[in-house]
Amino acid sequence: MALLLRRTSPLPGFHAGLAISLGALGLIVMLPLAALLGRGVAMGPEALIGHLAQPRVIAALWLSFRAAIGAAAVSGLLGLILAWVLVRYRFPGRRLLDAAMDLPFALPTAVAGIALTALYAPTGAFGRVLEPLGLRIAYAEAGIWLALVFVGLPFVVRSLQPVIADLDPGQEEASATLGASRLRTLRHVVLPVLTPALTTGMALALARGAGEYGSVIFIAGNLPNLTEIAPLLIVIRLEEYDYDAAAAIGLAMLAIAFVLLLAINAAQSWSRRRTGHA
């Protein structure tokens, strides 16, 4: 009788699956991170701080994360609007636009960087129009933001689309029937439901942008202390066979990204508890 009442999982093999998952996680993710941390420990705190205290390193780290955070915010706003339009409206070319959202995933980042540079360089199709207006995109920080929005926008759109598709329009209609304005309906009915998915998409865009390399180096100009990003500086240090300096910058990027993502996850958990979408 006890055997008949025993509950079984519809997906057997839990222990084997858990062992494989933890093994793959350890070999693919944790082992390289442990090697990087071990390199930092071997250097010692004085050498580590010495490598990171250089003005060029500080400027590169500040630029990388400033641009990544700003681009994630822009991607969040544009992604929310674009995902809403793709789900809620029907218009000619909608399927083509929806399919184009996946291109940054498949397109090599170097190709994206070359294409953006060709368009926004002073002699490019857009650059020759913007340059006389005092708007310099290529070889400036604005170009870095543009490249990071290009690679980060699909994360936000794809995170929001299924949530918007499941959102009941009847709730918005009921809110309007009760006299709420469109802005009030957006703030109190729509956004609380979309906030967790929006936060997830922006976190993915931030994580992608902080370590982005290929699409940025072509459009940034790579001027030290001005438009040089941290991933490029790591490559430069590796080419100079200064492995300790490269590891120090990598550790700094790892620590900053971990703190930012931890803060985003905490904010996301708070938002889910507040809205009741656990």
UniProtKB/TrEMBL annotation:
The molecule here is called: Sulfate transport system permease protein CysT
Q: Which protein family is named in the record?
A: Belongs to the binding-protein-dependent transport system permease family. CysTW subfamily.
- Assembly mode: The complex is composed of two ATP-binding proteins (CysA), two transmembrane proteins (CysT and CysW) and a solute-binding protein (CysP).
Enumerate the spans annotated as ABC transmembrane type-1 domain: 61-264
Pfam families from the entry?
BPD_transp_1
Task: Report the protein's function.
Answer: Part of the ABC transporter complex CysAWTP (TC 3.A.1.6.1) involved in sulfate/thiosulfate import. Probably responsible for the translocation of the substrate across the membrane.
Q: Name one GO molecular function term.
A: ABC-type sulfate transporter activity
Q: Name one GO cellular component term.
A: plasma membrane
Ordered alphabetically, the record's keywords are: Membrane, Sulfate transport, Transmembrane, Transmembrane helix, Transport
Q: Where does the UniProt annotation locate this protein?
A: Cell membrane
Membrane spanning stretches: 12-37, 57-87, 99-121, 133-157, 189-207, 245-264
PANTHER family of this UniProt entry? Answer: SULFATE TRANSPORT SYSTEM PERMEASE PROTEIN, SULFATE TRANSPORT SYSTEM PERMEASE PROTEIN CYST
Q: How does it sit in the membrane?
A: Multi-pass membrane protein
| Domain of life from the UniProt record | Bacteria
Q: InterPro entries annotated for this entry?
A: CysT_permease, MetI-like, MetI-like_sf, Sulph_transpt2
